[in-house]
Amino acid sequence: MQKRLKLQIKMKRVLITEDDQFVANICRRHFEQAGFQVVLASDGATAIELLEQDRPDAVVLDLMLPGVDGIAVLRFIRSHAELRSLPVIILSNTAYFSGLAQSAWEAGATQFLNKGDQGPDALVIEVRKLLITAALPSTPRAWNDPPELPPRAFIKAASGPVQVIVVDDDKVIHGVLGFFMEQAGFVVRSAFNGRRALEMADANSPDIMVLDAKMPELDGLEVLKLLQRHPKLSKVPVIMLTAERDEALKAGALGYGAVEYLTKPFSPDKVVNLIDRYVGQRR
Description:
Number of domains: 2
Number of helices: 11
Strand content: 15-25%
Structural class: alpha/beta
CATH class of the largest domain: Alpha Beta
CATH superfamily of the largest domain: Response regulator
Shape: elongated
Helix content: 40-55%
CATH architecture of the largest domain: 3-Layer(aba) Sandwich
Low-confidence stretches: 1-9, 138-158
Distance between the termini: 63 Å
């Protein structure tokens, strides 16, 4: 029986999400030597895209990732019926008892390993154990369905649901933000460049806008300047969400009216909570 189970998992696929290429390549080599097929993702957005394309058998996930962080990837997995049962091993430098590690457990991590304490061989063994356990017919599920996000009081107000325009040239960012915002009850519209965002806002004024800095046609600062001069849109709160860690750009964005300047990697939950705050204040 044990031999047959071992053969069944020999060619299983594992998705390793790690932005440190040195660590990612070491892990890939050890998994491939152990008979696994390996897919690599260097950031959270790519991991989500790969998960949507083809379901792996296990996920090894760092928490501190560029773009979309590991907690968001984990919540994405646990919120999709076809992915929910995936074993997810957190491999991180984050302290085991830190707030970030606690968030990972709450989001549905299967196992937590510290990079400094565990070598790649131990990681391979852990994944094998989890896959063998998952193959046993009587194995109970290790987590409950994720709870729905609490309803927003102001969503039921007479003014209707919150209207959000997300402006970013990365379609994966749209997918991630759209998923979390729609769970929160928001109505989300997507624009992939600044000019289109202004056309959409002019046609139907949003409650709030989430805006990238670097985009084709009109960048984020140009959009902010035009919004500030627009008679209908000058009071719309704008959350700048960008990979640019540039203090001059941040000062410019806040100077032209952005209410927040967030850098990637980011937490979708934080974006949702900020929308709650600013739209609630405005209404």
